[in-house]
């Protein structure tokens, strides 16, 4: 027996923590740019939540279980593009969310305990610890020792979606931390790596999404800072305007804007330069130069994968979702969710 579909769409917002920006880990331009690019990418995600109840067996002798299916899609794409571009589903019961949240907190405590007193006083640790604990808000749904009622399901649908949103932000921060941390403490690094892997598995992050992240990393790392004094001495660069936003470099930018790199100019391998935020936004749709269309990514090997220049654009995939009918119609049969049940 299937209950009527309930769906909720919520725009994912992933503001960059200023403590992360200011800490030593992200003081380097490349690390700061990668953090911004990853957060901007996650800002383009919608989460659609469908709730489906079904019996534990065919004869319906016991209380039904409730599945929360969360489809993650790019908000900037049209409905037609949704059928082609990357999207994936997280299908979990409330008990799985609850146990994972508890296990993740224990992993965070183990990571913090593996650090020395001196390491715990560094801004890098404080910023990352705050980012990890961001997922543990007071709005997480409560446990109930009774059959799921419509009120309980409605509360959990909203609360679990909020938890998933924060978990996506934690995943972005943790993955960048692993790539760019000093790795002075091997035990600490192993704890963080295991934690990030557990989050990735729970979020059901597909291989093509990880490939996109690797391509994005290569593109962002290919950027270099532009020497503003050198540009001032070059007559050809006088009065330069970014061809993406058509605004020139504002010399009176505030300190906070300068800290976040919003007013900085960066150079691509082809020597064309643009505002940092402008080119990072451009990379969300194409990893080529806006002027000459040359690929920013050369043939490189990244974690055993080879990326060709022809693959520099965002990966276009077709993902057949087993629960597509549940997310697009009012009802879904129990048989369609058999392979997705997590008992």
From TrEMBL:
<dbReference type="GO" id="GO:0008270">
    <property type="term" value="F:zinc ion binding"/>
</dbReference>
<dbReference type="InterPro" id="IPR001841">
    <property type="entry name" value="Znf_RING"/>
</dbReference>
<dbReference type="InterPro" id="IPR036871">
    <property type="entry name" value="PX_dom_sf"/>
</dbReference>
<dbReference type="GO" id="GO:0035091">
    <property type="term" value="F:phosphatidylinositol binding"/>
</dbReference>
<dbReference type="Pfam" id="PF13639">
    <property type="entry name" value="zf-RING_2"/>
</dbReference>
<keyword id="KW-0863">Zinc-finger</keyword>
<keyword id="KW-0862">Zinc</keyword>
<dbReference type="InterPro" id="IPR013083">
    <property type="entry name" value="Znf_RING/FYVE/PHD"/>
</dbReference>
<dbReference type="GO" id="GO:0016567">
    <property type="term" value="P:protein ubiquitination"/>
</dbReference>
<dbReference type="Pfam" id="PF00787">
    <property type="entry name" value="PX"/>
</dbReference>
<protein>
    <recommendedName>
        <fullName>RING-type domain-containing protein</fullName>
    </recommendedName>
</protein>
<dbReference type="GO" id="GO:0061630">
    <property type="term" value="F:ubiquitin protein ligase activity"/>
</dbReference>
<feature type="domain" description="RING-type">
    <location>
        <begin position="242"/>
        <end position="293"/>
    </location>
</feature>
<dbReference type="GO" id="GO:0005737">
    <property type="term" value="C:cytoplasm"/>
</dbReference>
<dbReference type="InterPro" id="IPR001683">
    <property type="entry name" value="PX_dom"/>
</dbReference>
<feature type="domain" description="PX">
    <location>
        <begin position="46"/>
        <end position="210"/>
    </location>
</feature>
<keyword id="KW-0479">Metal-binding</keyword>
């Amino acid at each position: 027996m299937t209950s009527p579909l309930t769906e909720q769409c919520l725009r994912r917002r992933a503001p960059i923590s200023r403590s992360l920006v200011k800490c030593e880990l992200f003081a380097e331009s490349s690390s700061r740019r990668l953090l911004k690019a990853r957060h901007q990418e996650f800002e383009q995600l919608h989460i659609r939540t469908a709730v489906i109840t079904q019996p534990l067996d065919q004869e319906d002798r016991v209380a039904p279980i409730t599945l929360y299916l969360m489809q993650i899609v790019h908000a900037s794409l049209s409905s037609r593009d949704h059928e082609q571009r990357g999207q994936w589903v997280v299908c979990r019961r409330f008990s799985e969310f609850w146990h994972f949240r508890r296990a993740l907190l224990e992993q965070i405590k183990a990571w913090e305990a593996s650090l020395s007193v001196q390491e715990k006083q560094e801004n890098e640790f404080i910023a990352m610890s705050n980012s990890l604990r961001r997922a543990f808000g007071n709005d997480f749904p409560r446990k109930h020792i009774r059959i799921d009622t419509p009120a309980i399901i409605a509360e959990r649908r909203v609360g679990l979606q909020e938890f998933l949103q924060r978990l996506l932000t934690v995943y972005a921060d943790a993955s960048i931390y692993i790539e760019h941390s000093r790795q002075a403490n091997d035990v600490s690094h192993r704890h963080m790596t295991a934690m990030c892997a557990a989050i990735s598995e729970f979020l059901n992050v597909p291989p093509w999404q990880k490939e996109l992240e690797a391509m994005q990393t290569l593109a962002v790392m290919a950027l270099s800072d532009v020497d503003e004094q050198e540009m001032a001495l070059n007559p050809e660069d006088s009065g330069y305007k970014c061809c993406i936003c058509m605004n020139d470099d504002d010399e009176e930018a505030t300190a906070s804007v300068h800290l976040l790199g919003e007013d900085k100019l960066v150079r691509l391998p082809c020597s064309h330069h643009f505002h940092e935020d402008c080119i990072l936004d451009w990379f969300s749709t194409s990893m080529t130069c806006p002027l000459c269309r040359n690929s920013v990514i050369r043939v490189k090997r990244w974690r055993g994968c080879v990326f060709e220049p022809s693959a520099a654009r965002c990966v276009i995939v077709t993902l057949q979702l087993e629960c597509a009918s549940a997310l697009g119609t009012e009802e879904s049969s129990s048989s369609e969710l058999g392979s997705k049940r997590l008992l």
